[in-house]
Amino acid sequence: MERINTYEKWLEMEGLPVIREYGITDLMMVQLEPWARKGGRGAYLNLLGAEENVDAYLCEIPPGGTLLPQRHLYEETIYILSGYGATTVWVEGGAKQTFEWQEGSLFSPPLNTWHQHFNGQSDKPVRYIGVTRAPVFMNLFHDLDFIFHNDFIFQKRFSGEVDYFSNQAKIIVDEVFGDPKACEANFVPDCRTFGLVEDRKGGMGEIAQAFFEMADNIMTMHIHEQPSGTYKKAHHHGPGAHLICLSGQGYSLMWPVTSGINAEGVERVKVDWQKDSVFSPPDKWFHQHFVTS
């Protein structure tokens, strides 16, 4: 029986470039093409380590321009790479809410809400990266009309709360990550200046970090800061994590967990990174981060 991959068929319909690599050194240098569905320019990033658990895309809003309104039945997290502007969010029959963002901002349009992005600059484009759960949702239902033309309103996720996109993060008690590193925040104004908490008990060395839960999503995010000239202990987890470098410079080594912590009998994969780099470690691959800046 033929395996149906609705997501891959949809990618062909989108008509955009699809990059399939371990990582991308500079997201600002990726060439984008006209994107009819969004009304801007874009490219898909199907990183090898994501293994179609999640995907990513780049989108550019033209100077002084506006993207087309979107609504979809899959989760999405957006990080602004350059520029500033605003996003309007609403549900059918509800009032519209608009919040402003800038380079470094992080947010997530609530599931299946209408949302529209605006470029606040008249002379420069805005570029952002979005990470989504589209592959899983599309291949679960095999029905694009259900994904893009579903009028169900998830009231428990978003019902028009006036302070929904407030920049005030709510500290939560989390049995896995622990207080106060876990936050509920539907909007982070600037990830690069967000106050982090030192974590020397997690077995990863001298690091500081913060964890985020946004819009009641399955996907979670975290910011990790590592001192200059240090490395993070080798670790592994499931597929789908997209690591975006906010600042600094360095590289990561990756290898299959079956080769052991010392990568016996296998050549490590090296990924160089700098500001605006992204990469995704494959499922059950050790990866180790080195800061050279």
Structure notes:
The chain has helices at about 5-15, 135-140, 145-150; strands at about 20, 25, 35, 40-45, 55-60, 75-80, 85-90, 95-100, 105, 115-120, 125-130, 170, 180-185, 185-190, 195-200, 205-215, 220-225, 245, 250-255, 270-275, 280, 285-290. The protein is mainly beta and about 290 residues long. Strands 1, 3, 4, 5, 6, 9, 11 and 14 form an eight-stranded mixed sheet that branches. The chain starts with 5 loop residues before the first helix and ends with a strand.
Detail the topology: elements first, then pairings:
Blueprint: H1 6-14, E1 18-19, E2 23-24, E3 33-35, E4 40-45, E5 55-61, E6 76-82, E7 85-90, E8 97-101, E9 106-107, E10 114-119, E11 126-132, H2 134-141, H3 144-148, E12 170-171, E13 182-184, E14 187-188, E15 197-199, E16 207-213, E17 220-225, E18 243-244, E19 249-256, E20 269-274, E21 278-279, E22 285-291
Parallel strand pairs: 1-4, 13-16
Antiparallel strand pairs: 2-21, 3-4, 4-5, 5-11, 6-9, 6-11, 7-8, 7-10, 9-14, 12-13, 15-16, 16-17, 18-21, 19-20, 19-22
- pLDDT < 50 runs, ≥5 residues: none
Helix share, percent: under 10%
Distance between the termini: 52 Å
Class from secondary-structure proportions = mainly beta
- Write down the Rg: 19 Å
Q: How many individual β-strands?
A: 22
| Continuous helix count | 3
Largest sheet properties: 8 strands, mixed
Query: What is the beta-strand fraction?
Result: 25-35%
